[in-house]
Amino acid sequence: MRYLPLVIAFVMGAFMPLQAGINARLRQSLGEPLMASLVSFSVGTLAIVAYILATRTPLPGLAAAASAPWWSWVGGMLGACFVVGSVLLAYKMGATALMAWSIAGSLMASVLLDHLGLVGYTVREISWQRLAGVALLLSGAWLVNEY
């Protein structure tokens, strides 16, 4: 069970280039990147609503929603930025370069978020090993770059 979170994270990462390619293809059909992104988010929203209804997940009260910090409401907007960006860049950059640079940016931000304990993360200080990992990932992104 110790490795289950690693496997789940790995599979989630494997879905990223697949999602980018699917959404980019939808853009070709619809002719508009924002419409493709809207369709993608709408289908995802419907899937989550169906799951909530099927599992009878209780809805939170208004007090619970009001207690959330203001910045916790922008997560969907950041997801939308990723989807729109990947729709625009997927076929231009290719799956490998797009994911390499996306993951490199994610890792750099993650090191800072952990170090500063922002948005609820437990503080995990920057170490030379983490910096070396970021440097290696940036080097890898540069090496696979065909853009």
Q: Which helices and strands appear, and what pairs or packs with what?
A:
Layout: H1 4-30, H2 33-55, H3 62-66, H4 75-93, H5 95-116, H6 128-144
Describe this structure in words.
This protein is mainly α. 77% of the residues lie in helices and 0% in strands. The chain contains 6 helices and no strands. The protein starts with a helix and ends with a helix.
Biggest sheet record? none
Succession of helices and strands: HHHHHH
Proportion in β-strands: under 5%
Helical amount among residues, as a percent range? over 70%
The mean pLDDT is: 94
Low-confidence stretches: none
**Protein structure class:** mainly alpha
Give me the count of strands.
0
Instruction: Give the overall shape.
Output: globular
Q: How many helical elements?
A: 6
Q: How many domains is the backbone divided into?
A: 1
Rg result: 18 Å
**Span between termini:** 40 Å
Could you give a short description of this structure?
With 147 residues, the protein is an all-alpha fold. It has helices at residues 4-30, 33-55, 62-66, 75-93, 95-116, 128-144.
What structural keywords apply?
single chain, mainly alpha
